[in-house]
Amino acid sequence: MFAAREAWRAGLWAPRHWAGNIAAGVIVGVVALPLAMAFAIASGVKPEQGLYTSIVAGVVVSLFGGSRVQIAGPTGAFIVILAGIVAEHGVVGLQLATLMAGLILCAFGLARLGGVIRYIPLPVILGFTAGIGIIIWVGQWQPFFGLPAVQGHFFHEKLWFLLRNLPALDPVTTAFGFGSLALVLLPRKVDVLRRIPGPLLALVVATAVQGLFQFPQLATIGSTFGELPRGLPLPHWPGGGLDQIVPLIGPAFTIALLGAIESLLSAVVADSMAGTRHNSNAELFGQGLANVLTPLFGGIAATGAIARTATSIRNGGTAPLAGVVHAVVLVLVLLALAPLARNIPLATLASILFVVAWNMSEAHRVVRLVRHAPRADAVILCLTLLLTVFADLVVAVNIGIVLSVLHFLRRMASSVDVAPMAIPDGAHGKEGVRALQVRGPLFFAAVESLREAFRSESSPVLVLCLDQTPFADATALQALDDEIAAARTRGTRVILCGADARIRAKLSRMGTLSRLGAGDFQPDLAAALEAADGPDPKAA
Known about the structure:
Structural class: mainly alpha
Number of strands: 7
Radius of gyration: 31 Å
Number of helices: 24
Helix content: 55-70%
Strand order of the largest sheet: 3-4-5-6-7
Strand content: 5-15%
Largest sheet: 5 strands, mixed
Shape: elongated
């Protein structure tokens, strides 16, 4: 169910809800203004493209997403991915990859894969988000300190270049950077300013100072990118042809995967704050539709923005109207205030991204998990973080998930127990009957336990009880079939009992039941012991 329709059914489009949602939309629009430009510049594109993204995605996701309080736009999590795509494929390649990612997200939603995305483990999520935060922080040293253009391809090369050139920082640019950083953080410390967004305060003050004094060595939006255009461009094909599609498949899937994770995380946070319940499949479809449309208007990749969504909820946003109003505010800014943007210092935008990077890293949660979580989870987190920083986000996430799955399988395998089972006093059964019980799922990682248990038994009759086995896979069933055949060659009769209907059907399809003697598959232990008291049907 789309957010707009769900809000209509809940009566949230009624006039009595307008005031709160309009106020929330105005505040979020003001907060989104500096962030959208900062994220765009850090991603390697023009500042107005961040505004276009916030406008188009803000409307589309608010109306067609799966959460009625979600606010979408460019986010810090995308910076590393988008900057890499721009460096390799150009802006046109980025927009084509974004469009392709939108189609992939729509397909995810239509295939109802929203629930699957949520199975990514917390250590992996914390690891790659903290790694992205570190990359963003280091990546903003150049505009913050007024350093030369960064050289190097890998993170360690860029970091070493910045450290070597740090003594050559520009004093005026650095002063603007630290002054802006103080202004961004000031509202958190001063009660009178608490209602003013820190990024907006820094943006207004720094822009006014530069407009008054015109420091020639200070890089600004105007000196770097020129004037911001007024208004939203008409939809158009971004460019590029079919020959660019294949090289962009990998980047498109990366954008789609990260967008899915970020949007669903934001929707979960919104649910906890607003008491709502999002539809994960509709959310993926709405995010996909937004990413199909934003490149047609000159925008870049977008997803649910946790900070802007939380700001909307805290200020009374309860319906998609807040997201639409936030987009309208940005359109009005482009129409009326675009000429003033030429004096916005890039050092100020870098200071805003410093705070974004710190918030993204969630250092307190990372430290807490490393200190108190199981050792394997702490190792997976640290490895994912390091791979994100020094290798590649996709590599980091893939390896993190694979290691998490392998660790889970090891724990599951260790929980499977194939142990001797006591035969009740007074039960039927001739001498030499032994019983084993499988406790836990019988799957491929538990095959070795099953084989060891079988090969340690040499009694004439072996009863295998499966009443505590919830499921079994083909690998384990094939191993069981092999061990039954091997036991028969050793002169041991095997009787199975206690398996539920699903496992019995699988045993039948594998041919195991047909290879057992008649009566060697019983419903419970008592019946199996009675069958053991009789003659061996295979021997007969």
